[in-house]
Write a structure and sequence with these properties.
The chain is an alpha+beta fold. It has 19 helices and 14 strands.
Length: 450
């Protein structure tokens, strides 16, 4: 079994922490004064690739995005990996902004790094361009990679029957709650079995206006004009919003889901996304500052909530419509076809996804492991907030429409159309029905023409 020796994992994590205090990423630096980095062996770990790591040599480049938390986390991953592979040097290529542009520039120059991240909707384009090394042989060599893996997550990196990318993690989409506001308003805190109707009623109850009624001082909730929101709400009504190669947002089920977002804005329970961005603010900042009582978002907000929220808060599952769907939001790890050290690249990937590697990146709570057994461990899914919402949503992760839309290789163009047309609806320029109809017409006549 892959992920069952958590006591051993914790033991070698303590060893790793001690080693990291004297070792940096990318091998020795001038400040190391020539001191050699500590080494580890297969006896120190349950990672299956340790013996091979000791035999490998050469240089690797690994490019990733994210915030400073992720820069530090992956520096630790690479430094620890080098202790198992002392003859391999990993160069961390951290890109804090405009990551996609940088990656596309390197791809155009035929200068991709050995390993790099691509969003779940971008794998198809790089695969079709012949830039991705196949990973089926990697999975065969390192079977721990897929033991206990959550159902469905591999599909997002499987293009035309071949595994071209591997999901490094994922983030659930949940509803964050300002518990102090619930107490002050005398409103019962929802549980994971709440419904969309419950949600709308609570949002109205928690909305507050100024004494003269001229402005809203606290919104009951917020919406985001973002793919996770659309996918969640449409999926919660069982919508086939993308089917048979065509956009289908004007279907009754998709409209019912999108109308949840639209009607919250129309009712005054949520600010329109445009009104928030016009102030230079963001919805998550409104939650942090106590101007929004309930906020749907991913796990990436947790580090800032932990450090900045001066009130009690928690999270529950998104409210249920006729069913439930959790969008799959992820960066996938790819190995470049041009890599001259694919053996070491595959070995590093397997270490990153090992118990030890994942423990180094899950502590910050930015994301979740793609393994069912690790979802049950607070080492990998820590608190606050409560873990139930995150664990439960793994059982309804992703849907066929999201997978099909991602694997067209045209998600970027499609997403731009959806964003623009929904913005018109949220800002009151069109109805949600008109927006959905225009999305389908434009997408199916300009993007999905075959």
């Amino acid at each position: 079994m892959k992920k069952k020796t958590l006591k051993k994992t914790l033991a070698f994590l303590m060893t790793a922490a001690m080693a990291l205090s004297v070792a940096g990423c990318g091998g020795s630096s001038e400040e190391d004064s020539g001191d050699q980095q500590p080494t580890k062996s297969a006896e120190d770990t349950n990672w299956e690739g340790a013996e091979k790591a000791a035999e490998l040599s050469g240089n690797l480049t690994y490019m990733h995005s994210g915030d400073d938390y992720e820069r530090e986390m992956y520096a630790n991953v690479f430094s620890t990996y080098e202790q198992y592979a002392p003859n391999v040097s990993v160069e961390q290529m951290y890109v804090p902004s405009d990551y996609d542009t940088k990656l596309q520039t390197l791809a155009a120059a035929d200068d991709l790094p050995d390993l790099f991240w691509v969003g779940e909707a971008g794998v198809k384009r790089y695969k079709d361009a012949g830039m991705l090394s196949e990973l089926d042989s990697v999975i065969e060599e390192y079977p721990q990679l897929t033991e206990d893996i959550i159902d469905g997550v591999l599909e997002f990196g499987n293009i035309d029957g071949q595994q071209a990318a591997f999901p490094k993690d994922w983030t659930s989409y949940v509803m964050y709650l300002n518990l102090d506001m619930f107490e002050e308003a005398g409103v019962d805190v929802p549980t994971n079995d709440w419904t969309v109707e419950d949600y709308k009623e609570i949002a109205a109850e928690l909305t507050q206006t100024s004494e003269d009624g001229s402005r809203t001082t606290v919104y009951g909730t917020a919406i985001n004009n973002y793919r996770a929101d659309w996918i969640n709400w449409m999926g919660n009504y069982g919508a086939d919003w993308f089917a048979d190669g065509k956009s289908n947002l004007s279907s009754p089920e998709a409209l019912e889901g999108l109308s949840v977002m639209y009607n919250l804005v129309q009712a005054g329970s949520a600010p329109s996304p445009g009104s928030v961005s016009a102030t230079g603010d963001s919805e998550d900042r409104l939650f942090i500052t106590g101007q929004v009582a309930m906020y749907p978002s991913g796990r990436w907000v947790i580090p800032s909530f932990r450090t900045e929220c001066d009130f009690e808060w928690d999270a529950v599952e998104m409210p249920q419509g006729t069913t439930r769907t959790c969008p799959f939001i992820c960066s996938m790890v790819c190995i470049a076809e041009t890599s001259e050290n694919k053996d070491a690249a595959a070995n590093l990937l397997s270490f990153q996804m090992s118990d030890e590697g994942l423990a180094l990146v899950m502590e910050s709570a930015l994301s979740l492991p793609v393994y069912t057994d690790l979802m049950e461990s607070e080492t990998y899914v820590n608190t606050p907030p409560s873990t139930d919402a995150f664990i439960n949503s793994a059982s309804y992760l992703g849907n066929e429409s999201q997978i099909e839309a991602c694997q067209t290789g045209k998600w970027s163009e499609y997403s731009d159309i959806i964003t623009a047309r929904l913005s018109d609806a949220f800002e009151g320029k069109t109805t949600i029905e008109e927006a959905a109809q225009l999305i389908d017409e434009q997408a199916n006549s300009t993007v999905f023409t075959e």
